[in-house]
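step=encode ok
step=design start
structure_in=
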């Protein structure tokens, strides 16, 4: 933290008062944010029940792609993920065995088979996207005043907006560099 001295003039006598004010630097702010974020995550992260197995990161990536793009063939998935068709087929088989995807014949072209998420697959995928335990978070929020909750949300909105602006600018710069 940096200390600043403020001067105050009170008029005719011009008496100068020195106050010590702490100014938080960007580095200090970042360190505190990282520390607090880790603490919140550690305390409030969502856990999986003992009887539910969390899908692998590879399976989650495939489910995410299905959510975004819709049904696709094993060949299309293999191409998208730069994997051998046999490896992608094995992954789809595991997802199907767990009830997360179904293979559906194309009504127009019976030679094509599409892979699509089941209701269970969408539910498990949505669970993988829940970073914080809602009940623990709500119980924690109950301990804050309305003004504290409002300030917290406004602060998080500010950092989310700032980070989005930085990422957008970085992507634009990367595209500009690639086009040179």
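sequence_out=
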């Amino acid at each position: 933290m940096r200390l600043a001295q403020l001067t105050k003039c009170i008029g005719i006598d011009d008496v100068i008062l020195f106050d010590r004010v702490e100014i938080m630097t960007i580095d200090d702010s970042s360190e505190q944010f990282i520390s607090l974020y880790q603490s919140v995550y550690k305390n409030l992260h969502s856990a999986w029940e003992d009887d539910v197995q969390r899908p692998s990161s590879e399976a989650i990536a495939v489910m995410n792609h299905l959510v975004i793009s819709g049904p696709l063939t094993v060949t299309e998935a293999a191409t998208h993920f730069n994997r051998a068709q046999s490896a992608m087929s094995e992954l789809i088989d595991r997802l199907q065995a767990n009830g997360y995807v179904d293979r559906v014949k194309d009504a127009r072209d019976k030679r094509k088979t599409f892979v699509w998420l089941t209701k269970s697959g969408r539910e498990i995928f949505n669970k993988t996207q829940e970073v914080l335990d809602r009940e623990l978070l709500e119980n924690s929020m109950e301990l804050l005043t309305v003004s504290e909750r409002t300030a917290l949300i406004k602060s998080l909105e500010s950092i989310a907006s700032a980070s989005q602006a930085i990422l957008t600018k970085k992507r634009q710069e990367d595209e500009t560099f690639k086009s040179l």
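step=design ok
step=annotate ok -> Residues 57-128 form a domain with the Arc Repressor Mutant, subunit A fold (CATH 1.10.10.10).
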